[in-house]
Write a structure and sequence with these properties.
The two termini are 17 Å apart. The radius of gyration is 15 Å and the shape is globular. It has 163 residues and is α/β, with parallel strands linked by helices. It contains 6 helices and 5 strands, in the order αβαβαααβββα.
Length: 163
């Protein structure tokens, strides 16, 4: 995946990428940063665990986010759109979820929502999104699984986009 990601981001014209992470806590950024030459397309990432940080830096709507503990498809999409704006990137990825069970939130197994946004002529728009279930995994394994899944989705999208 590393060399494929770089190749797809740079052809035929360079696309740039920003990342907003919560549940994955930097794993996506680390995997992108491990790609030789990542600085040619990767603008940076932001890990925002708290709702206040998601609101402040990514433009997440506080009231509905608070109602779902900042874990929903809508929050992931807002984070992705916010990352495009924050980094002024062509594409962005975002994750939010639970890396481990949370009895207080009624979460029995880890899962995450993710979104991929792209800037178009009319502005940024979410182009892909989804949910990743991580049943039977521990905290770090769940984070890594989501990071890997989201990066595969990015590569799949780029293959479709770049033809």
């Amino acid at each position: 995946m590393p060399s494929e990601l770089k190749e797809l981001m740079l052809r035929p014209t360079r696309l740039t990428l920003g990342v907003a992470e919560s549940m994955t806590c930097g794993w996506i950024q680390a995997r992108i940063g491990a790609v030789p030459g990542a600085s040619e397309f990767f603008l940076g990432g932001l890990t925002a665990y708290e709702i206040d940080q998601k609101v402040r830096h990514l433009g997440v709507d506080r009231v509905p986010a608070t109602a779902v503990n900042a874990v929903s498809p809508d929050v992931a999409e807002q984070m992705a759109l916010g990352a495009c704006a924050f980094f002024k990137s062509d594409l962005s990825l975002a994750t939010t979820g639970y890396a481990e069970p949370s009895a207080g939130q009624g979460v029995r197994e880890p899962f995450a929502f993710w979104a991929l946004a792209q800037v178009r002529d009319s502005g940024p728009a979410v182009v892909r999104h989804g949910r990743v279930d991580c049943a039977g995994t521990g905290r770090v394994q769940a984070q890594q699984h989501v990071a890997d899944t989201v990066l595969r989705e990015l590569v799949n999208y780029l293959v479709t986009l770049r033809g």
